[in-house]
Design goal:
Helix content: 25-40%
Strand content: 25-35%
Oligomer: single chain
Low-confidence stretches: none
Number of strands: 12
Order of helices and strands: EEHEEEEHEHHEEHEHEHEH
Largest sheet: 7 strands, parallel
Mean pLDDT: 94
Shape: elongated
Length: about 240
């Protein structure tokens, strides 16, 4: 069922208008009067089922027919600390990791990042839009935030807010990600994924000095977009949340 997000708190029988970008998206689907859709209030964690009662050129009028508690989110909050990759790979990472269940994505500029900081800042609005669209498509209860782009050192300085932090390290040979994830029985984690070429030695050392746990995603070298998706899937599987 098509899902949209709303700030409204409304009872069964209440009416609401869908307008703006959400209405543009709805109109593309060519809905008919009487069809239903979902409206999710992320703050209240309520999902409404609404019936379309009227459509004009400017908006769609809907009536709430039922509501329930939102329950699509993983039990653990996952923040992806993603080194900004080349080209459009970041868009794929955002789309798929939001579908899987990450709560937040922090774009990070590292020593081997090949994207200019100004270019990344310009893309911030588009990245957030991609997050919203992926959240709607996959039935998420929240729209994961895509934060402002952070230099690597600033990303490290922000780690005190997380209970546990990991870095996917292609040179790690002693600890596999899934086993490490299973041991970390916490509710708020951050996972670092490097750029093309990976993190350099100084960055790995800086992360270890901050208590970031190094893990391996397997015996093969993964592309940056594959690594991000794999790291999230392994975490969710380890926690039986997928």
């Amino acid at each position: 069922m098509t899902r949209f997000f709303t700030d409204a708190t409304i009872g069964v029988g209440g009416k609401l208008a869908i307008s703006g970008e959400d209405f543009d998206h709805l109109r593309v689907l060519r809905p008919k009067i009487g069809e239903t859709l979902e409206l999710c209030n992320s703050e209240k964690r309520i999902v409404y089922t609404a019936e379309i009662t009227d459509m004009s050129r400017a908006d769609a009028q809907v009536t709430i027919v039922s509501k329930k508690k939102a329950d699509a989110e993983p039990g653990c909050r996952i923040t992806l600390m993603q080194a900004v990759p080349k080209f459009d790979k970041m868009e794929l990472i955002i789309q798929k990791c939001v579908e899987l269940g990450v709560s937040e994505i922090v774009p990070v500029l590292t020593n081997r990042t090949q994207t200019h900081p100004a270019n990344a800042a310009v893309k911030a609005h588009r990245w957030q839009k991609i997050s919203k669209e992926a959240a709607q498509q996959s039935g998420r209860d929240i729209i994961p935030a895509i934060t402002s782009v952070l230099p690597f050192r600033e990303a490290l300085d922000s780690l005190s807010q997380y209970e546990h932090t990991f870095v996917a390290n292609e040179n790690e040979t002693e600890q596999y990600a899934r086993a490490a994830y299973q041991r970390a029985s916490v509710q708020n984690v951050a996972i670092f994924i490097g750029p093309e070429g990976g993190f350099d030695k100084s960055e790995i050392k800086a992360m270890r000095d901050k208590g970031v746990e190094s893990v391996s995603l397997g015996r093969r070298i993964l592309r940056v977009e594959t690594a991000a998706i794999t790291a999230v899937i392994l975490f969710l599987c380890a926690r039986e949340e997928l």
